[in-house]
C-alpha cells in the first residue's frame, strides 16, 4: 500500500521523468539539417566569391606588372590566354633584362565568360605602356554564377569592375597670354577622348538568319543570328525563333544578360520573340542559346558601351 501511494505521489509531483519522444527527436534533427544546409550553401557561395575576386585581382595585378615592365625595358610584354582558365605572362620577372614566360591559372571554378564565340583575349604592351587594340574586356564567372570583369584600355589603364572606355568630362579652359606669345594665340578644346574611337567598339548590324536541324527533319531558325546591345540596359535586343514542329523553347546565357521569357511554347510553323538586355557593365561577345527538343541555335550578342 505504501509503495503504491509513493508511485502515485511521484507521478503527481513530476519526479518520474521520461525521455524525449520520437517526434521531438525528429523535429530537432530536421531543424539541425535545415540550419546545416543553409550554412553549407553560404560557405560554398562565399568560397566561390573569394575565388573569383582572388583570380580577378591576380590577373589585374599581372597586367599592371607587364605594362610597367614594358615601359621599364623600353620593349614589349604580353599576357595571353591559353584556355578559358589559364594564361601566360611574358616579361622580365627577375630584373635581369631578359623576358621569360610563366603560366598561371584561375582558382578552381573560375573561367572566362565570353568564349567560345570570341577568340581568347591577349594583350601586348608596347614601350609606352599602351596596347595596339581598343579596350579589351576580360569577363569572368565563378561556379556560383557570379561575375566580374577586368578592362584594359588602349592607353594601358587596368581597372576592375569599372568603365575605362570614356574618360570623365572636363571643361576645357581658354589659355592666352600677353607676355610670351602674341595675344591672338589661344589654346582651346572641347573633345573628350573615347578609347573606343580607334577600334571596333561600336554597335554592328544584325547577322543573317541561321537554321539548325535535328532528327526527324526538325528545324529551328533564329533571326538575327548576331546583334549588338548597349551595356547596363542601354538598349534591348529582340530575337525571333521559328520552328517546323511544336514544343517548348528554353533559353540559357551568361549571368550578365537577361533573356525574357526564360522559356516559350511554340507551335509548328509559328514564331516567338525573346528580348535580351545587359544587366551590368561587362562588355564583349556572349553566347545566348535557344533549345528545343531536337536542336539548339545560338545568337552571338555583342555588348558595347
Give your account of this protein's structure.
By secondary structure, the chain is α+β, with helices and mostly antiparallel strands. It has two domains: 21-200, minor pseudopilin epsh fold; 210-304, Immunoglobulin-like (Sandwich), CATH 2.60.40.3450. 21% of the residues lie in helices and 33% in strands. It is built from two helices and 18 strands. It has helices at residues 2-13, 22-73; strands at 77-83, 86-91, 100-105, 111-112, 122-125, 136-141, 147-152, 158-160, 210-213, 219-223, 226-230, 237-243, 247-252, 257-260, 263-266, 271-278, 284-291, 296-304. It has a five-stranded antiparallel sheet with strand order 9-10-12-16-14, with no helix packed on it. A five-stranded mixed sheet has the order 11-18-17-13-15, with no helix packed on it. Strand 17 and strand 18 form a beta hairpin. The longest helix is centred in the N-terminal third of the chain and has 52 residues, at 22-73. The radius of gyration is 30 Å and the shape is globular. The model has no long low-confidence stretch (mean pLDDT 80).
Protein topology:
Blueprint: H1 2-13, H2 22-73, E1 77-83, E2 86-91, E3 100-105, E4 111-112, E5 122-125, E6 136-141, E7 147-152, E8 158-160, E9 210-213, E10 219-223, E11 226-230, E12 237-243, E13 247-252, E14 257-260, E15 263-266, E16 271-278, E17 284-291, E18 296-304
Parallel strand pairs: 11-18
Antiparallel strand pairs: 1-2, 1-5, 2-3, 4-6, 6-7, 7-8, 9-10, 10-12, 12-16, 13-15, 13-17, 14-16, 17-18
